[in-house]
Amino acid sequence: MSKECDPMHEHLLIGFLLTMAGGALDAYSYLNHGQVFAGLQTGNVILLTLHLAQGHLEMLGRYLFPLLAFFIGVFATVSIEHHFDKNDRFLWQHIVLIVEIIGLIIVAFVSPHLKNIWVTCLISLIASIQYQTFRKVRGRPFATTMTTGNLRNTAVFLWLALLKKEPENLRKALETLLIVVAFMLGAVISGLLTPIYHNATVLFISADLACVLAILLIMQRHGQEEAI
User: Fold this and answer.
1) CA distance 171 to 25
2) What is the C-alpha to C-alpha distance for residues 133 and 131, in angstroms, rounded to an integer?
3) Rg of the chain taking only CA atoms, in angstroms
4) Does the keyword Cytoplasm belong to this entry (predicted)?
5) How far, in whole angstroms, is CA 161 from its chain's centroid?
6) CB burial of residue 45 (10 Å; 0-12, 13-18, 19+)
7) pLDDT tens digits for 38-84?
8) CB distance 108 to 203 below 8 Å
């Protein structure tokens, strides 16, 4: 798919900022709320089964409830897409970003007053909304809240470029690697800010998503003006 044909929410800059938010959110959740991941549910499944195998039944809720919240978030996001996908006035992705931004602001204020398990449920819900909504960059599958698939795609594109002599795949490999770096950068930023701002660190993630929303709105307005 050519750059000109990419939907606005599939642009590389949008993917970079969203993946940075995803990495930051996972690190924030792990560091501040009981070592539970926000979007990396594979990690939660592993920790859940390890505690189950060791007989630590009192730990199961810590990982099981965020898994259920993630499931509910995906279900809700599909419903949002179904009802608003054909709307000509705004993108349904705008609604999702607004929900995320508001949700993270709520997390910042309620975190000191709630048990970790309920905060991580809310964070997992937010992460699942982003994961389900933004699934492609430049027409290619990618993930904003985890990085295993992105690493795989980087290796595949690089193999195609170097061994199959398909130079167009080198650009794809570099772009996908940039997405991986974005996830790492988000985690690093969250790790550096957490000792200073603690629960308020999530507001920086919310600001990142607000930038994404602003860029999408500007791109949409520019596109509408060109169509006139």
Assistant:
1) 28
2) 6
3) 18
4) no
5) 28
6) middle
7) 877 888 888 889 988 988 888 888 889 989 999 999 999 999 888 87
8) yes
